[in-house]
């Protein structure tokens, strides 16, 4: 299994990059969002990867964070969602947007991805809603490290900008679960609060989520 690629970008395609790793070129398929965050040809890049193996096909898919790679794996587990649809969803929403949509049951957000119909979007929400709290608790995850010409690590890989309050969401979710709220309802409340105030810190998110969880009436 190839879990990580680090080298120099030799070519940028419409949906992939060719990364030269000490003379060996690897074609890595990426989402539009990931492609936009990668450096130009000739510069160093590193991606976490997932290898798709079929009888007549071997394809590498690349992700800037482990969290995004894990969402790809989960989406691929939903009947009717293949690699292309998964990459379209992640490219449209990003991992934080996917987590929020799943937590809120917002299948219309999933449907906004090219090639994803309403039935598939609803199935993704229904099947993955239980996974959203754990994924939100992971935060943004780390980016892979870049090599220099001698193979030594030199810096963190460029990647699309992470949501400002991604770690705050994870901390708020953990706090609410510690208070006894079920993972699903806590995730939904935190997602709503984060959507209303993308720059909110942990304390603000907790207070806003608690207001949403308070009994009505």
Q: Give start-end ranges of low-pLDDT stretches.
A: 153-164
Query: What is the distance, rounded to the nearest whole angstrom, between the alpha carbons of the first and last residues?
Result: 54 Å
Sheet bearing the most strands, described? 5 strands, mixed, barrel
Q: Tell me the count of domains.
A: 3
Superfamily (CATH H level) name of the largest domain: 5' to 3' exonuclease, C-terminal subdomain
Query: Radius of gyration from the CA trace?
Result: 18 Å
Q: What is the typical, i.e. mean, pLDDT?
A: 84
Region (Domain I): 1-64
Family: Belongs to the RuvA family.
InterPro entries: DNA_helicase_Holl-junc_RuvA_I, NA-bd_OB-fold, RuvA, RuvA_2-like, RuvA_C, RuvA_C_sf
Organism: Silicimonas algicola
Describe this structure as you would to a colleague.
- It is a single chain.
- This protein has helices at residues 32-37, 66-76, 83-104, 107-111, 118-128, 132-137, 166-178, 183-196, 202-213, and strands at residues 4-12, 16-21, 24-29, 44-54, 57-63, 145-147, 153-156.
- It is globular.
- Helix 3 (83-104) crosses helix 8 and helix 7 runs antiparallel to helix 8.
- The chain has 217 residues and is α+β, with helices and mostly antiparallel strands.
- Mean pLDDT is 84; it is low at 153-164.
- It is 46% helix and 21% strand.
- It has a five-stranded mixed beta barrel with strand order 1-2-3-5-4. A two-stranded antiparallel sheet has the order 6-7.
- A hairpin with a 2-residue loop joins strand 4 and strand 5 (57-63).
């Amino acid at each position: 299994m190839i879990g990580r690629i680090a080298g120099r970008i030799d070519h940028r395609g419409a949906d992939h990059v060719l990364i030269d790793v000490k003379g060996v070129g690897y074609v890595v398929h990426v989402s539009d969002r990931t492609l936009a965050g990668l450096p130009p040809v000739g510069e160093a890049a590193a991606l976490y990867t997932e290898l798709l193996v079929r009888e007549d096909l071997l394809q590498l898919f690349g992700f800037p964070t482990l969290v995004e790679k894990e969402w790809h794996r989960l989406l691929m587990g939903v009947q009717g969602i293949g690699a292309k649809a998964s990459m379209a969803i992640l490219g449209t929403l990003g991992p934080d947007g996917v987590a929020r949509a799943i937590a809120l049951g917002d299948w219309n957000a999933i449907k906004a991805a090219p090639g994803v119909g309403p039935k598939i979007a609803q199935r993704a929400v229904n099947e993955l809603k239980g996974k959203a709290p754990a994924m939100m608790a992971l935060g943004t995850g780390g980016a892979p490290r870049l090599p220099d010409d001698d193979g030594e690590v030199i810096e963190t890989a460029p990647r699309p900008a992470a949501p400002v309050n991604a770690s705050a969401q994870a901390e708020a979710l953990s706090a609410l679960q510690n208070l006894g709220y079920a993972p699903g309802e806590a995730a939904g409340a935190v997602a709503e609060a984060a959507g209303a105030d993308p720059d909110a810190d942990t304390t603000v998110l907790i207070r806003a989520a608690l207001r949403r969880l308070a009994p009505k009436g």
